[in-house]
Amino acid sequence: MSCWMPGCPALSMCRGLATLPITCLERAKDLKSRLGILLHKPELGHRTGTSSKLQLGSRRRDSSREVLEWRESFDQLLKSKSGVTAFHTFLKTEFSEENLDFWLACEDFKKTRSKTKLASKANRIFEEFVQNEAPREVNIDHETREITRKNLSGATSTCFNEAQAKTRTLMEKDSYPRFLKSASYQDMTKQATSRGISKRSHT
Predict the structure, then answer these.
(1) Separation between Cα atoms, residue 120 and residue 112, nearest integer Å
(2) For 114-163, how does the pLDDT look when each residue is reduced to its tens digit (9 = 90+)?
(3) Which residue stretches, if any, does this entry annotate as coiled coil (predicted)?
(4) Alpha carbon distance 133, 138 (integer Å)
(5) Domain containing 125 — which CATH number?
(6) What is the pLDDT of residue 82?
(7) Burial status of residue 28 (CB atoms within 10 A of its CB: 0-12, 13-18, 19 or more)
(8) Using CA atoms, how far apart are residues 103 and 69, in angstroms rounded to an integer?
(9) Would you state the pLDDT for residue 26?
């Protein structure tokens, strides 16, 4: 729009812009550019959100399958980190978590490479779990206890094998079946099954 007449609004606006400092005009352009970037961000955010939902859905399917696998065998339960955590929580309700803690301590012990650390760890595990009236004494027979005591004189990565095996058998035959029948595990399996049904109905 152009106008040469005095008092024309367009002429007044042009004169007003001309009197503005250059820095103000540059800032206005910069602001416009930033606004343009912000207008595109929700679209990017939407894409990211979709990707996150897909990953979360995949993790849920994996965890559901894992929960159902725990009932297949005690080995399947012990292979799963979340399975061990759930089983440990259950054992606490029965005041027998020391059996699993001892088994886990033995597993960690077997990975020790230093002979010095092997000996100190062996003594610590024996004093905490195996010896008579230990703070967290596991339920093993006298003969196994004595064999383990003798093994400490020349500690190797296998010195707890017999005691660990006895404790594992006790958990598998006694605590594990009760865990599978517990309300907490039954709830987990129901949730896992319902997620599986929901997945099939959407495919």
Answers:
(1) 11
(2) 989 999 999 999 999 999 999 999 999 999 999 999 999 988 999 999 99
(3) none
(4) 10
(5) 1.10.167.10
(6) 96
(7) exposed
(8) 21
(9) 57
Angle at 136 between CA 133 and CA 142, to 5 degrees: 50
Please say whether the dihedral angle defined by the alpha carbons of residues 150, 96, 108 and 129, taken in this order, is positive or negative.
Answer: negative
Contact 99, 175 (CB under 8 A): yes
Count the Cβ atoms, other than its own, within 10 Å of residue 103.
22
**The whole model's pTM is what?**
0.67
Stated length of the chain = 203
- Full residue range of the structural domain in which residue 163 is found: 60-193
148: which residues sit within 8 A by CB, 6+ positions away?
126, 130, 159, 160, 162, 163
Structure tokens at 6: 């005095």
- Residue 25 forms part of a structural domain: no
- Please state, in angstroms and rounded to a whole number, the distance separating the CA atoms of residues 68 and 189: 6
In a domain, 107, yes or no: yes
- What's the CA angle centered on 96, arms 90 and 97, to 5 degrees? 65
Reduce the DSSP state of residue 169 to 3 states and report it: helix
Buried/exposed code over 143-176 (b: 16+ C-beta within 10 A; e: otherwise): ebbeebeebeeebeeebbebbbebbbebbeeebb
Amino acid at 47: R
